């Protein structure tokens, strides 16, 4: 009609200017409601506008030029991207981020079908990727902290098959696929499957955000953020739990057991990420060495092992106080062990029986080895300190009885726990080597042999000559009793005393 009237060009200009005014009106952001609520009509109007314009361009016989359509789209796209960048920078909730991202992706998919370039939209989502994951990590940290804080650290008791499937099978927390008899006592507490759910949800949300079409392979990106979750969040939360909260020994043991289970579950997290990204399982398994998460949980494992050792040593020290009651200048050789070692062994027996049910073998080995080393150090420290001003051979004989009981316990537990066939080069008995070598030297018929380099290396390699010099200065071959002079007539004893005197002199020269 306008062409027939001879004013076709005027109408083209009129249409173009009015449509620009309509576009500017459609792109006004509502200030009366949050962007989360207004983003859908905002983006829908943009999509509708350009779907109409593409139709007009194709069918209206030159009413719009290609350059006009492109210019209008570029103008609108600049407005949309600047609005999104501004709104994304203000967001503090990952789920809101995800809702808007989904609608932006929908806008891109809709207009792309009509030939409009959407590179700038994809770039906005890529630029906001780290911000979104940072918010997601913060939310996961709060959830994991709450889970760890509220856990009772009692083993889970699962009474039904669906409970087992939901808490064990779903996360591959047991290597055996067979359904157990119920009730089933899990080797972990409730925080383990709860943490696994958070990790799995994190992977799903990460994949969902990254599936906007800008990346050819999102698997590597998902793995990177999964590592951050396990390293910066889970590992850190576990360390805070270990250091900041006072847990009882049984609770700390269960936490150690939990960490071992989570460390094993890292493989499942990787495979689940691959599944969500559409990566074949065999490809994910080949790249397993690239995942560092299992390694970083070693920091939490080492921390909880040290915490267990410290708790146990603190308890052992309560019994080692009984060393103050030992008669260090006894005139007769003892027939029985000292009271302190009996109390220590009762405690250790209870500790090991409990630990065997909860701790993995490696943790059990480290904890018991740490306790044994502490006992050895405590005995050495007692002889070095001012509290023991002198001691006799009879006191050493009593110490020898104590050590034999402790060594028998160490050997029995090393065998019964299965550590003897695990390839460990250092046994529990080896942790007592310093105090054992000291006792052997003090009871030796020729203690001066310590100064022979070959004999010292073979029999007394764990002894420090400075410590030995202090202890030997306190050592008396016999008690200062009424019959001391008579006992010194014994040839063997006199020879040993002369040898000890030689050792004392040579140690002073050696130092």
UniProtKB/TrEMBL annotation:
Quote the InterPro entries the UniProt record gives: EXOC6/Sec15, EXOC6/Sec15_C, EXOC6/Sec15_C_dom1, EXOC6PINT-1/Sec15/Tip20_C_dom2
| Location in the cell | Cytoplasm, Cytosol
One Pfam family name is: Sec15_C
| Organism encoding this protein | Eleusine coracana subsp. coracana
- Domain of life of the organism in this record? Eukaryota
Return the protein name.
Answer: Exocyst complex subunit EXOC6/Sec15 C-terminal domain-containing protein
Q: What is the lineage of its organism?
A: Eukaryota, Viridiplantae, Streptophyta, Embryophyta, Tracheophyta
Q: What does this protein do?
A: Component of the exocyst complex involved in the docking of exocytic vesicles with fusion sites on the plasma membrane during regulated or polarized secretion. Involved in polarized cell growth and organ morphogenesis. During cytokinesis, involved in cell plate initiation, cell plate maturation and formation of new primary cell wall.
**Family label:** Belongs to the SEC15 family.
Q: Return the GO cellular component terms, semicolon-separated.
A: cytosol; exocyst; membrane
Annotated ranges, domain Exocyst complex subunit EXOC6/Sec15 C-terminal: 120-474
Q: Which residues form a coiled coil?
A: none
Give the main location: cytoplasm
Q: Does the keyword Manganese apply?
A: no
Q: Which UniProt keywords apply?
A: Cytoplasm, Exocytosis, Transport
Encoding gene (name): gb20181
Write out the GO biological process terms.
acceptance of pollen; Golgi to plasma membrane transport; intracellular protein transport; pollen germination; pollen tube growth; vesicle tethering involved in exocytosis
């Amino acid at each position: 009609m306008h062409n027939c009237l001879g004013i076709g060009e005027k109408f083209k200009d009129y249409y173009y200017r009015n449509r620009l005014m309509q576009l500017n009106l459609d792109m006004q952001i509502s200030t009366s409601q949050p962007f989360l609520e207004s983003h859908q009509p905002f983006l829908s109007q943009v999509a509708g506008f350009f779907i109409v314009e593409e139709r007009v361009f194709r069918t209206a016989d030159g009413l719009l030029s290609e350059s006009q359509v492109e210019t209008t789209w570029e103008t609108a796209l600049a407005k949309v991207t600047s609005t999104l960048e501004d709104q994304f920078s203000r967001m503090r909730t990952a789920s809101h981020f995800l809702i808007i991202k989904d609608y932006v992706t929908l806008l891109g998919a809709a207009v792309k079908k009509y030939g409009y370039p959407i590179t700038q939209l994809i770039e906005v989502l890529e630029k906001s990727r780290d911000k979104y994951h940072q918010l997601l990590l913060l939310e996961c940290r709060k959830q994991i902290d709450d889970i760890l804080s509220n856990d009772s650290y009692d083993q889970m008791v699962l009474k039904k098959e669906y409970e087992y499937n939901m808490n064990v099978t779903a996360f591959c927390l047991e290597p055996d696929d067979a359904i157990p008899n119920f009730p089933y006592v899990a080797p972990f507490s409730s925080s383990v499957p709860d943490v696994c759910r958070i990790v799995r949800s994190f992977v799903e949300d990460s994949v969902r955000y990254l599936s906007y079409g800008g990346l050819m392979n999102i698997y590597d990106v998902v793995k990177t953020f999964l590592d951050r979750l396990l390293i910066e969040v889970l590992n850190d939360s576990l360390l805070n739990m270990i250091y900041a909260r006072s847990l009882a020994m049984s609770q700390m043991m269960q936490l150690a057991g939990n960490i071992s289970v989570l460390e094993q579950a890292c493989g499942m997290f990787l495979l689940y990420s691959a599944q969500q990204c559409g990566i074949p399982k065999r490809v994910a398994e080949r790249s397993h060495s690239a995942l560092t998460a299992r390694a970083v949980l070693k920091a939490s494992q080492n921390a909880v092992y040290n915490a267990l050792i410290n708790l146990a040593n603190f308890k052992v020290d309560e019994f080692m106080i009984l060393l103050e009651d030992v008669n260090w200048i006894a005139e007769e050789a003892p027939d029985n062990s000292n009271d302190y070692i009996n109390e220590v062994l009762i405690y250790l027996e209870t500790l090991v029986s409990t630990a065997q049910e909860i701790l993995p073998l490696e943790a059990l080995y480290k904890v018991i080895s740490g306790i044994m080393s502490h006992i050895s150090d405590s005995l050495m420290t007692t002889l070095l300190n001012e509290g023991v001003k002198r001691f006799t051979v009879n006191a050493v004989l009593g110490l020898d009885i104590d050590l034999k009981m402790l060594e028998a316990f160490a050997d029995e537990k090393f065998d019964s726990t299965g550590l003897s066939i695990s390839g460990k080069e250092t046994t529990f008995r080896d942790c007592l080597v310093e105090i054992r070598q000291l006792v052997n030297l003090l009871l030796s018929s020729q203690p001066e042999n310590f100064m022979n380099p070959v004999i010292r290396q073979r029999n007394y390699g764990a002894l420090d000559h400075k410590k030995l010099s202090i202890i030997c200065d306190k050592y008396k071959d016999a008690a200062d009793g009424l019959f001391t002079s008579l006992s010194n007539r014994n040839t063997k004893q006199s020879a040993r005393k002369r040898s000890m005197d030689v050792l004392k002199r040579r140690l002073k020269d050696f130092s």
